[in-house]
Amino acid sequence: MKKKNLLAIGLVFVLSLTLILSGCGNGSGSSDSSSSSKDSSSSSEALSGKITIGGSTALQPLAAQVAKEFMEKNPDVQIEVQGGGSGTGLSEAQAGNFDIGMSDVFAESKSNIDAKALKDYQVAVVGMTAAVNPKAGVKNLTKKQLQDVFTGKVKNWKDVGGKDLKITLVNRPDGSGTRATFDQFALDNKTPAEGITQDSTNTVKKIISETPGAVGYMALSYFTANDTSVTKLSIDGVEASDENVGSGKFPVWAYEHMYTKGEPSKLVKAFLDFMMSDDVQTKDVPAQGYLSVKDMKVQRDADGKQTDK
C-alpha cells in the first residue's frame, strides 16, 4: 500500500515538473516571438522609397537642403527635387506626377487647377523684390516708378534718378509663381512690357548681372550677403528684408506652398512633418533666406488680402 502511494506521489511530481518546464518553455517562446515582433515592427517603421518634388524655383533651394538632411537620416529614401515653376508644380501634383508640387501661389489662383483636390502645406514665406544691374545706379524706387519701369513707360534709368542707360526687362513666364506674386503686389496687376523671358531664377540673375541696365525680380533667398553682382531694390524707401516682410511693411511676399494630391503617403507625410519641425523652421528656413511661417506677424488669404495675425 505504501509502495502504491509512493508511486502515485512520484507520478504526480513528474507530471507537475513536466508542466512547469513546459510552461517555462512556452514563456520563453512568447518572449522570443514578442522580441521578433518588435524587431519586425521596428524594421517596418524604417522609411524607404522615393519622393519626387518639383515646381517653384523660389522654394527649390530650401526643398533641396531639407531633402538632403532627410535622406541622411533615412538612407533608404531617395528624394528628387526639380524646378519648372509654380504652374508646373501645381499641374504635375494634380496629375500625380509629383508627390509634392511646390508653388509660390495658392492653387485657387490657377483656373486650370482643382484646388479642392490638393492639400496645402504652407512651409515658409518668401519675400521678393526687383534685382537691378549695379551699373544702373539705382537702389530705391517708388512703387509708381517701379511700375513705370516694368510697364515700359520709362525706358532709361536716368528718368528715375539713375545713370543714362537703357532699361532691359527680364521677366518670368506666365506660369511662374514669382511673376504672379511680383505682378500682384509690386505692379498692382499692371501688365509688364515685353522683355527677355526666362524660367529659371538662377538664369534671370545671371542675365541681370551680365547686362548693363537690366532689371528683373527674384526671391530674397537669391540675394546673398557678399554677392554684389545684382542690386536688391528697395520700394518707397522700405528695404526688402526679412524683418520688413515679417511685419508687413514690405508688400511683396508670398507663402511657399507644398501641395499633395489628397492625403499624402506615409513617406511623404514624414517628409512634410520634417519640413515643419523646429530644427528646420528655426535653422534651415532662415539660413536659406526664407522666413518661418511662425515668425510672420501678418497673414494673407488666397485673394491676397493681408491682415494681422
Automatic annotation (TrEMBL):
Residues 29-48 have a biased composition (Low complexity). The keyword Lipoprotein applies. SUPFAM superfamilies: Periplasmic binding protein-like II. Residues 41-279 form the PBP domain. It is a lipid-anchor. It is found in: Cell membrane. Its main location: membrane. It holds the Pfam family PBP_like_2. Residues 28-48 are annotated as: Disordered. Keywords: Cell membrane, Lipoprotein, Membrane, Palmitate, Phosphate transport, Signal, Transport. Belongs to the PstS family. The complex is composed of two ATP-binding proteins (PstB), two transmembrane proteins (PstC and PstA) and a solute-binding protein (PstS). Involved in the system for phosphate transport across the cytoplasmic membrane. Part of the ABC transporter complex PstSACB involved in phosphate import. This is Phosphate-binding protein. It comes from Sporolactobacillus shoreicorticis.
